[in-house]
Amino acid sequence: MYDGVQAGLRERQRRPQCGHSSLEDAFRGLLQLLGRLPKREFNPSVHHVCDKPVDASLVLISFRGTEPFDADDWSTDFDYSWYEIPKLGKVHMGFLEALGLGSRTNAATFQDNLQPGMHPSKTAASEAPMLASDDMRTAYYTVRGKLKILLDEHPNARFLVTGHSLGGALGILFPAVLLLHEEIEVMKRLLGVYTFRQPRVGDRQLEKFMEAHVSVPVPKYFRVVYCNDLVPRLPYDDKMFLYKHFRLCLYYDSFYVEQNMQEEPNRNYFALKYLIPKHLNSVWEFIRGLTIGYIEGPEYKEGWFSMQVRMVGLVIPGLSAHSPTDYVNCVRLGRSRRVQMACIKGKE
């Protein structure tokens, strides 16, 4: 299973501009891995799994996404406040809080946790006293400590980070803070970061910092976006808010055709020229939801809840496009438009 994951990632890294089979191979391996092995929780928001109990080759870290009926999670997604970190730049404050790296009620807590080179630990054993401290029992320090222990137990293993929605934001911020804390030995064993439905997490300085570390010499970070999904287009990328995505975006249209871009179309969602196409597309998605089980097979049939979400999409297309159903179908049914896609940088 790990061989499929690693081969898929290597193919994607060699040819980021084309090819869907690499993504499918990688995540077929991941889905098999997750389906067959028991997940273990660091805390209610994070899971980990190894491909083998002894001498593992892969450690998978998965951050949970936005809960559908959790107001705190949704308010975090729609938050626009930021905190400026030396070296990294301006970073979304709500996501930093979700990682347990500070609290807006006491801004000094961010400074305590987000100084360059702070709290580095060279060995897995040195994490134990930190995890025993109440101040260090946060998502970031718990995940970092457990990851180091696992990498120490499995010296041939590399780790992969993934997450969806809110979890996607935490998934890319986790290695960013590892880099800030100068956890160089840990980062040498990073295999890749795949995020799904991820909102923006920081400004252009963070973009430049991360691209220097996860895109060179080969890309290790891939951001998957389906069609008109609202959440990846938040917070806004404009002159007021200045939030930026960074590459590579694997964008899927409503026919599950993959295109490789720097930024998804309609980057701030509310551009008027996309208003009618978005609603027409949601009608097509509703019809597709009714028929896909007959066309692709019974395992693709959408249940009553999924169709209720499709109905909401007739009014607010960006919400139904955030459904996990379409992201799973991107992996299972997606195909690549095998051409080099131009980066979308113009104003919309």
From TrEMBL:
GO terms for biological process: lipid metabolic process. InterPro entries: AB_hydrolase_fold, Fungal_lipase-type, OBL-like. Pfam families: Lipase_3. SUPFAM superfamilies: alpha/beta-Hydrolases. Residues 61-237 form the Fungal lipase-type domain. GO terms for molecular function: triacylglycerol lipase activity. PANTHER family: ALPHA/BETA-HYDROLASES SUPERFAMILY PROTEIN (PTHR46086), TRIACYLGLYCEROL LIPASE OBL1 (PTHR46086:SF3). This is Fungal lipase-type domain-containing protein. It comes from Acorus calamus.
